[in-house]
Amino acid sequence: MDEYVDILDENGNYTGKVLLKSEAHAKGLFHPTIHVWLYTTDGKVLLQKRSACKDTFPGYWDVSVAGHIGAGEASLSSALREVEEELGLQLSEKALEKTGICKSVTKHREDLIDCEFHHIYIGELNVPLSELKLQETEVDDVKLMDIDEFLSIVKDPPPSSLYVISCPDYYKSVFGAINKKLKQD
């Protein structure tokens, strides 16, 4: 689905411009997105298998929830909306904790360049997977994976790996925050 997004400069500052997501991708313009990582108290992380119909990384395992922040939308509102859309899970604002923002550039092809600033949130998953209602156009499946196993895979992915891989600093930030929460519980 095409939607309007705010255009950012290379430092993540709002430019005042608004374009369709497809235009931002075609021109390689920076725009804001959200990533939500849901974890369990027993040290697992929820991964989603991206729909086979997606333009980028179809059929790959990825962050629990990801999406574009609509033009003029706050990142937390977007995160809550995307969690509900993709997983059918309604969370309160206090259920998510923002851990940071990560700049990411991925050129998929000449007319599809993801130049994004990911607003990253973490939250505890406290419902069974059977209660999630997956958005068919976005998510083919979900699974829980031990955090150490996941980090091992993304650190040294095998050639046939079907996981979306981010930079090491991204994972250090996300899983450092999750591990800190797990130690508090």
From TrEMBL:
PROSITE patterns: NUDIX. CDD domains: NUDIX_Hydrolase (cd04692). It comes from Sinomicrobium weinanense. Gene3D superfamilies: Nucleoside Triphosphate Pyrophosphohydrolase. Residues 29-171 form the Nudix hydrolase domain. InterPro entries: NUDIX_hydrolase-like_dom_sf, NUDIX_hydrolase_dom. GO terms for cellular component: cytoplasm. It comes from the Bacteria. GO terms for molecular function: isopentenyl-diphosphate delta-isomerase activity. This is NUDIX domain-containing protein. GO terms for biological process: isopentenyl diphosphate biosynthetic process. Transmembrane segments: none annotated.
